[in-house]
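This week, work through this protein record:
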Amino acid sequence: MFGNRFSQTERSLLIKGARPIGFGGGVGKTIDVLIGKDGRIAETGSTIAVGDDVKVVEANGASLSPGWTDLHVHVWYGGTDISLRPQQCGAARGVTTMVDAGSAGEANFHGFREFIMEPARENIYAFLNIGSIGLVACNRVSELIDMRSIDIDRTIATVEANRDVIVGLKVRASHVITGGWDLTPVRLAKKLCRILKLPLMVHVGEPPPLYDDVLGLLTEGDIVTHCFNGKAGGSIIEDDDLYRLAEDAAQRGIVLDVGHGGASFSFDVAKAALERGLPPKTISTDLHNRSLDGAVWDMATTMSKLLSLGMGFEDVVAASTTAPRRAIRLPSDGLLEKGRPAEFTVFDLVDADLTVKDSQGATSTLRRLFEPRHAILGAEAIVAHRHVPSDGSAGSVHVCPHCGWKS
């Protein structure tokens, strides 16, 4: 696999006094984790003694989870007009694995791989856009004007040549993209996914096509991103029939993904769904250059929003780590076992008084906040912190109760 390609380092790494969460078995007692120079777990235990040649990260009781995995980002920087650089939403924000959601199509995927994915220190995977040009000029030049926008043979060939990093196909099912083409692009994308034996990620937005009809085409393992959007005709709480279809879809194994973005997440919709027992399976940001300093900011803030709306702490962690890994068929069990590649996020959950917005502009106050401290990629520990928007609105200083670390 392309991911977890950690290079040999000069020093081993010891994470000292971290509290495991998200590995199964609830919140564990504090442990030490020793990572060898090869980037693999060498030992775990209550106390591990090491020499001066080992780099030590003092967790001081902070949480240690599998690496945060953002299932929906846009990082084909320079190849589209909306994409960010990977480092703007990756390890420096506590995210070790990112999945680009359709920035590239078959016509420009080779550049995305060579210039973005391969040099990145994070693990980057991709859903290949069913539209050949991807999001080159997002929402200005549609990638799905008509059948001339899709090259079936070249899309199949691109997937086959890049199966180590392409984890599925992406289609945007919204009238602002497809005009009157309705369900045809979704049907074509689903057909190709059956041929390629890969999941389909569908962006649901302004109808047509109807969210209702999209759900009827999907099968186990497919992904609906923007599941809690508040758009007229696409909100699962304004239509009881649609809500029941969403419930049924979740029971059929379809992944409901947050995909916050600049226009696709509503506090009211998410809160109502959680109260009625319909949580998202995965939490993702849909970060791009129009949402970074707008409603989204980063993965930690998005996770904190779901926590504030009533999702359990352990459920939020699972939806941001092992659940998205399973969605793209990466290993999700035994991630703390000896010999496994080390990919973790060290974070605190701190008291806060932070006003945030959803994609509709509604505000909410976060009282508890995920604060990333380190992204662990092999034997490399990257210092991490939340994104501070350009207007400085990401909140006041917070002090970790364990170590006094400030953010």
Q: What stands out?
A: The first strand starts at residue 13 and ends at 20. The chain has ten helices and 15 strands.
